[in-house]
Amino acid sequence: MEVLDALRAFSQDHDHIRLVLTGSIGIHHVLSALRKSGYGNDPLNRMHHIQPGPLAADDARMLASRLLIGAGFDSEKINIIECSTVIAALVGNVAFYIHKLISRLPKKQPLTSEIIEQQLKAEISSLERNDWNLSHYADRLVKYYGDDVSIVRLILDHVAIKNADANFDSMRRAVTGSMNFHDDEKLRSLIRLLCQDFYLKREQDGSYRFHLELIRRWWCVYRELSN
Hints:
Blueprint: H1 2-13, H2 27-36, H3 57-70, H4 80-90, H5 95-104, H6 113-125, H7 136-145, H8 149-162, H9 168-176, H10 184-196, E1 200-202, E2 208-210, H11 213-222
Antiparallel strand pairs: 1-2
Helix pairs in contact: 3-4, 3-5, 4-6, 8-9, 8-11
């Protein structure tokens, strides 16, 4: 509380100084925990909130194409443009996953979209030896959601299976059908937090889907759901 208030006061008293507060997912959870302890301030209301997100599609394809060439794939033997487009799309244009996938692609056979898809499927299916840090999406739920983690898992399970067909009503039915829970406002709050945490995103028609298709596919494997 003291640190956040001090930073806000410092930036407010000295307009010629600019502060950049950076970090990974979770600042809203920090503020929520502080407010439960009686903290009533809004220390970030003078800051611009920026969520970098994945690369732009063109930049992701360019990164993938240059990594393919740098990794030794012969542009005369494979279609670099086609392969880089497939790679970027499969991992949601996330640079970290582009690097990971390309580093695992076989070089002793012609590279095709089918082979790329097969390799990605093998990577997200290898739960015991995966170094993509995908398990972080499951491990951090207990820390962030505490006693509500069972509800959150049910929400994610439902959206993973239904994909674009999931909405608030269907999530409510899925949760109430599995446990004694009938708090619509609490459910709305958890869904909003899952969107802020980049698990889910809300479409204009009110439906929900996973923020990244890659994570949805992995979640289905991890939770042994019908994909």
